[in-house]
Design goal:
four-stranded antiparallel sheet; seven-stranded mixed sheet; alpha/beta; 468 residues; 14% strand
């Protein structure tokens, strides 16, 4: 027995001693089968003799003899100071292949809305996590407050006021797990009796979750100045807008229309829901403040870190009118069921330390350079394509001649490019007459070594449809 095996309790290991023969034979067979079947992977350290013997109710020598036999057979290895481990040369059988239910992903990912996972600021996040966890009170690791951690709500109050012109307070912010979660909560609070107005082009996922909550959506046309707010039905309970960067067509909501949306809300008693999905990423224009700052009692601002950090964090927020805070918290429930307290504490530290600002500035520069490479190559390879919506955000719209969208999607897919058509985002009740053809191209996701090949493949597909 090694010194390592003699100290400590070791890891838990479930074994069924059901084989015929004595206890040693049954233990040897159970261990051999666990290794052969892959349940004990190569390199796994087994429990010390004493620990496993106590767990199984057998003599210590029984375990020692079983280990020794399997070491002699080559299933296990034993070294002084390292304990007993599964031998590296023992490989589990490959799992039986299952026919995939979805086609494999295309090699060139130009789908909008997804930041490059490799760009996540791991070092800054780890530093912030250490500081946040060191300073956190003990109660932070208890049952979560559905309002969200107070540290994060205070940090968001300062950050959103400084960067987005938001007028709020910590007690008017409710943390959620992203825009979809926010919309579900708001739909529950506002109820399904009255319809919501939505932009004629927008995320079908958002329309779908509203429909799932029983909310009817009415399309409002969009143009180069954003949503035509004069067309918002008076009987709508709310209007869902993307004022900083209309999704997906790309323009900001014109100042007169921003004022018009709030006039509609005051006159009708409705609510403006502002999806601030990528307001921090602007390139060729001055920052556009949030509509919420013009009338906090008639506007809900919804934001998240899905574009700036990672959709995997599942942290978002709502800046609410005072009358909606209680109902939204009640709809969320008595406990925080969604956003991790430790992630909230870490994000609060990232915001307070300035590390979040530095990361956003770095990503803003990177996205702008990628956008410039996209537009330069399109100007050279596909000069007939008009590129719009590029003053901000993580995607561009490539306007195509009428009737060519489907052909362009097929041609780019044949070249391994994952991209989406503009028609995907059109509200099903919006008029088809006059609807534009186009591709919505995301430029944030591909790793650097694959970005140029993705753009070349995109242009090859466009050339096939449009000609050189």
């Amino acid at each position: 027995m090694t010194a390592a095996e003699d100290g400590g309790l070791g890891v838990d290991l479930h074994l069924e001693l059901s084989a015929a023969g004595g206890r040693r034979t049954a233990l040897t067979a159970a261990l051999r089968e666990a290794v052969r079947g892959g349940r004990l992977a190569p390199g796994t350290r087994l429990p010390p003799y004493r620990s496993l013997a106590a767990d199984l109710g057998v003599a210590r020598n029984t375990v020692a003899d079983a280990y020794a036999e399997l070491v002699a057979e080559g299933w296990l290895t034993s070294r002084q100071g390292s304990g007993t481990r599964v031998a590296d040369r023992v490989a589990a059988p490959a799992p039986r292949s299952i026919r995939p239910t979805t086609p494999p992903p295309l090699p060139h990912d130009l789908v909008q809305g997804k930041p490059d996972p490799a760009a996540f600021p791991r070092t800054a996040w780890l530093t912030a996590a250490r500081r946040a966890l060191t300073a956190a009170p003990h109660e932070a690791f208890g049952i979560g407050d559905p309002h969200g951690r107070t540290e994060l709500r205070h940090a968001l109050t300062e950050y959103l006021a400084r960067v987005r012109g938001v007028r709020t307070a910590p007690d008017r912010i409710v943390v959620c797990s992203g825009a979809a979660h926010a919309l579900r909560l708001l739909a529950r609070v506002l109820g399904p009796a009255d319809p919501w107005a939505v932009e004629a082009y927008g995320l079908p996922f958002h329309r779908g979750l509203l429909a799932g909550a029983g909310v009817t959506t009415l399309p409002v046309a969009v143009d180069d100045d954003g949503a035509r707010v004069a067309d918002i039905p008076r009987h709508a309970r709310a209007v869902l807008l993307t004022p900083a960067h209309q999704f997906p067509t790309g323009g900001p909501l014109h100042p007169e229309r921003r004022a018009g949306a709030l006039e509609w809300a005051r006159a009708s008693g409705g609510l403006v829901i502002e999806d601030d999905y990528d307001g921090e990423f602007r390139y060729d224009r001055r920052p556009v403040g949030a509509v919420q700052g013009l009338d906090p009692e008639r506007t809900v601002l919804v934001g998240s870190v899905s574009k700036s950090l990672s959709p995997g964090l599942r942290i978002g927020w709502m800046c609410l009118p005072s009358a909606l805070v209680g109902p939204v918290v009640a709809a969320k429930g008595e406990r925080e069921p969604h956003s991790s307290a430790t992630d909230q504490l870490t994000l609060a530290e990232l915001l307070a330390s300035g590390a979040y600002d530095r990361h956003v500035r770095c990503m803003r520069k990177r996205h702008r350079l990628r956008r410039d490479r996209l537009t330069a190559l399109l100007a050279e390879r596909a000069p007939a394509v008009r590129v719009t919506g590029i003053a901000a955000g993580l995607h561009a719209v490539l306007e195509l001649p009428p009737g060519t969208e489907r052909a362009a999607l097929a041609a780019t897919a044949r070249r391994g490019v994952a991209v989406e058509g503009l028609d995907l985002y059109r509200h099903p009740d919006a008029p088809r007459s006059g609807a534009a053809d186009g591709l919505v191209v995301g430029y944030a996701t591909p790793p650097e070594r694959l970005y140029e090949p993705a753009l070349e493949a995109l242009c090859d597909g466009l050339s096939e449809v449009l000609g050189d």
